[in-house]
Structure of YciI family protein:
Amino acid sequence: MKFVALIYAAPEAEPVYGTPEFDSLLEEYMQLSEEYSACGAFVAGEGLQGNDTATSIRVRNGQTELVDGPFAETKEQLGGFYLLECKDLDEALRLAAKIPSARYGTVEVRPVAEY
């Protein structure tokens, strides 16, 4: 069963890009991805560029509206994701709890709908 782990954090809570703290965090992510691969859970995972690069699209009554930034204003921003293959929700939650940003942000775990 596939699960997505959506990684949210407030920008001011994260280490600044280019600092030793950021490099250390990135190394933790690389090691975690290797761990996920070794146990067969890793399907995909990526970091995302900041909210200032986002464009939201709405189509209402046949009209397309583009809005700079994310759809919802929140303190925490979606920063990346892992797509994991797990036997059940318990395994997905156990693996997602290892995501480094969970220490200062939020990781939302959802099953992927299979159509």
Summary: The radius of gyration is 16 Å. The mean pLDDT is 93. Residues 2-111 form a domain with the Alpha-Beta Plaits fold (CATH 3.30.70.1060).
